[in-house]
Amino acid sequence: MEHRYRKEGHMPHSKGPVPQAQAKEGPMPQLVKKRRSGWAVLAAGALVASLLAVGATPAGADPENADHKAATSACVGDALGDQMFTDVSDGHVFRDAINCIAYYGITNGTGDGSTYSPNDDVTRAEMAVFIARAAGVAGVDLGDAMDEGYDDIGDVWAEAQDAINRLTAKGVFPGGDSFRPGDAMTRAEMAGALVGLLDAAGAIDILDNGGIDLDGDGDADEDDADDYFADARALSPVAVDRAAAALFELGVTNGTGRAASVDPKKTPLDTKFDPGGTVDRGQMAAFITRTLAHTSARPEGLSAQAVGSTVRVSVRDENFAPVANAWVEVFFVSASDEGDALNADGSCGSLIGDANDTEGTRACEIDGGDRLTNGDGDATTQAIPSDVIGDDGAVAWAWTGDVGDEVDADTALFRVEVNKAPAPAETSTTAAISNDLAGAVGKFGSSVTVTLQLQDADGNVTGGAVSADEPAKWLVEIQTYVYNRQLATPARVGTSPILVSTVPVTSDADGKGTFVLAPPPDPDPNNRTNAFEVAYIIRSRCELDFASTAFVNCAAPATGTGTFPAVMPNATVTDGDDTTSDDHTGGVVFSDEAAVPHSISIETSSYVQTASRAGRVALNRAKATLMDQFGDPVRSAKLTLTSDLGRTDDTTDTDGASSLAATTGGTAKEFTTGSDGSYTFGYTYSSTTGDVETIQARYFNDPTPDQASSGDEVTITKDATVRWAQEAPGSGSSAVVDGDIDANQIVVVNGAGAALILTYDDDDRLDTSDTDVASSTPASMAQFEEKLAGFLGTEATAGELVTWSNYMNRPRHTSVFTLHAS
User: Fold this and answer.
1) Which one, 18, 134, 509, 689, has the greatest CB density within 10 A?
2) CB neighbours of 339 closer than 8 A, spacing ≥ 6?
3) With contact defined as beta carbons under 8 Å apart, do 732 and 750 qualify?
4) DSSP category for residue 376
5) To 5 degrees, how large is the angle CA 46–CA 52–CA 57?
6) d(CA 9, CA 20)
7) b/e string for 348-366 if b means 16 or more Cβ within 10 A?
8) Same domain for 614 and 580
9) In whole angstroms, how large is the CA radius of gyration of the chain?
10) What is the helix (H) or strand (E) element at residue 640, kind and residue range?
11) What are the pLDDT digits (tens) for 438-457?
12) Measured CA distances, 591 to 71, 631, 716 (Å)
């Protein structure tokens, strides 16, 4: 079992090799499968539906989208069969993932095996067992278990010890003196483990420099992970930032709730990663199955999935290992003709002619012209004709056999839906600008990359340009100035640049163009006051001569023409500022000055549920990080954290709902930052009533404390908002202000300003309507959460509401929720 410090044995009704040190369990009801030649694994004569949406891996980077999401899934066909866990309902959001890992033998359930406990946190020892079993399913040889030197795993069960040691030897876990087997697995640790598993499986490549190559080009650049989670980047080690970004690009995680406000000139994701958050068993199942999609793991026998207008067929043996050189055939009809495609005796009907075979010369027969699976056990067909797919889609059937076999009543067919391809992306007429500057100032010897990314009319980044076959082009003028940062108001020295260059930039297939800003060499390494500003100008409404890199006809635009500075040919630029028709300008100051404290960031929960009754408290943590002007952490500095709901009298615990000192009138204790420039404050909230708290992190330094107000004092502050949310009443309607899709929670604020929390699940009625509850149309969990994700994005507006009725946060109770515009 996966109870802490109990053995997790092999599930009798699962497929695959028995894990080491298995525990005895009683038999579970088995899925009966009738086999026949050709690796048929489904009951004879059955047409097993695998209702799959068309999907394909994008060709290149696309910010705010998973650019390297797997085209197919490990959870298809038999892998989706009900494993009969009594606490996983038919509508459970992670039901398919939970059934899938049980099918592959990655979980045995909990207790006597009849439950799964999807809401329990996963310990590090349990996660090691899950990852090791998943590695076996993915064909990864972890080798024999050898002692890796951990001093705290002697009391865990044998399979967990072996998994920990084997995964450490393989590099999936980093190693060290202690493993902390009983601690809850954090999302940061989960990210590192899953990336390590994919590296061991050969799906990605972790390079010697720590970069993660997702596209197999031997380099880890923005084509691999052009998106990132702002909280992971700002407050986590580089390895966690890279792992979290890679998992987003691979489609393994979408993040949690709404991200904090970020610089509009940069492009982090709208959601946060919450690296310190824990992982429950339901989430873990989803993470592992999405990870397995990038490996060879597919169900035993034959399975098939649509990839665009093609069909990818996979054949695996009883251990899920790829079967090479297996004959496969795929035949198809338009979806509207499905009812007449097969005869009552199981043979192909008259609608299926030889033209309905994707490969061979005779439909419904293995004729030697069909596909053989490759060394990975897969075969991808030619495209089904677009006129067959039409507007309604097509239905295809895949099967395997020997040359000369024909489809009949004993043939196991695998049914696949092939949907109409999505409409092509709109042409791009705007370009978002971002850069990779870590702080406010660049260091001498470093450089900053500026990215122009084309966007469509809705602001979503696309792969298109002005037309399908024409890129956007820009000419960028780069000017370097001597700069004086010692002035009260830092400024350029003189009005003329010392260096001027013009750089042609062309968007690539992903709609992206880049240029680099770099300072000249340090003119005097012994002088720490040198500085340069490297500025750029993207001219408005100019014709471009790329051959001579010249600007032509750059007259000022007429009043009222256009909405953004037009950059030929017809690509425009916005930097997140107000709409303008002026040239777009920007720049970076580079300096060799000494590092000094410059800014503070705060990572905390945007909302926390209040205690359920008086006498109890709710807990929160806030991680404050002090950075210098270059974006590097400042260690051994003193920070305080205060609250507008805090206490002015530190001798009592009754004069403030927050246990922090009051920002005004309180006496705050100072704490010292560590090597990462941060300190994590823990505090409590004692009220059961919802409220909105403003916490403030503060750094203060007075080099001359014996002189009153000498002018050399340095004070840096940063505020953050925490909504203390109480359980919502039975009915209401309010604007959505926060939430967490992974936790199935929505946060609103009532008319009195108090935060309220709503928890939904698959037993509730979920609607996505712009009208009222009575006229709304029930939605699936996926549809509801897709709309909720839009409400939680950075573009959310005050007019996005949730209306609820009959609300109680209880299992098996049906509450009603509607997401709609005001």
Assistant:
1) 134
2) none
3) yes
4) T
5) 140
6) 9
7) beeebeeebbbbbebbbbb
8) no
9) 30
10) strand 638-643
11) 999 999 999 999 888 777 66
12) 46, 13, 21
Domain assignment present for residue 567? The answer is: yes
> Cα torsion at 265, 267, 272, 275 (round to 10°)?
-100
Residue with tokens 């799959």: 52
- 663 touches 718 (CB < 8 A): no
Contact 516, 447 (CB under 8 A): yes
Give me the residue label for tokens 């009966």.
32
CB 397 within 8 A of CB 42: no
Are 671 and 806 within one domain? no
With 0-12 CB in 10 A as exposed, 13-18 as middle and 19+ as buried, what is 381? buried
Instruction: Return the half-sphere exposure (C-beta side, CA atoms, 13 A cut-off) of residue 181.
Output: 25
Rounded Cα gap, residues 534 and 283, in angstroms: 46
Tokens of 325: 């050189």
Check whether the bond before 525 is cis (ω within 30° of 0).
no
Give the chain's domain count.
5
CB atoms closer than 10 angstroms to residue 780: 12
pLDDT average, residue stretch 62-88? 88
Residues 6+ apart with CB under 8 A from 681: 621, 622, 623, 624, 641, 660, 671
Tell me the HSE value of 98 on the side-chain side, using a 13 A CA sphere.
28
Q: What is the pLDDT of residues 187-206, one digit of tens each?
A: 999 999 999 999 999 999 99
Task: Give residue 172's domain range.
Answer: 74-292
- Assigned token pair, 783: 């549809």
CA dihedral of 609, 612, 616, 621, whole degrees rounded to 10: -10
> Domain for residue 682, yes or no?
yes
| Same-domain status, 750 and 641 | no
Q: Which amino acid is at 290?
A: R
Q: Given the structure tokens 């203060």, which residue do they identify?
A: 700
Q: How far apart are CA 486 and CA 591, in angstroms?
A: 11
Q: What is the pLDDT of residues 313-339, one digit of tens each?
A: 999 999 999 999 999 999 999 999 998
CB 5 within 8 A of CB 155: yes
- The tally of CA atoms less than 13 A away on the side-chain side of residue 91 is 15
Task: Tell me the sheet residues that pair with 755.
Answer: 725, 749
CB of 432 within 8 A of CB of 426?
no
Does residue 702 sit in the same domain as residue 758?
no
CA within 13 Å, CB half, 316: 24
Cα distance between residue 664 and residue 656, in whole Å: 12
pLDDT digit string (tens) for 348-390?
A: 988 887 777 777 778 899 988 899 999 999 999 989 998 899 8
pTM comes to 0.54
Q: Which amino acid is at 93?
A: V
In a domain, 28, yes or no: no
Quote the CA–CA distance of 794 and 235 in Å, as a whole number: 20
Distances in Å between the Cα of 674 and the Cα atoms of 222, 627, 668 are 30, 12, 19
Nearest to 486 by CA among 632, 591, 631: 591
Element housing 188 (H / E)? helix 187-200
Residue 95 lies in a domain: yes
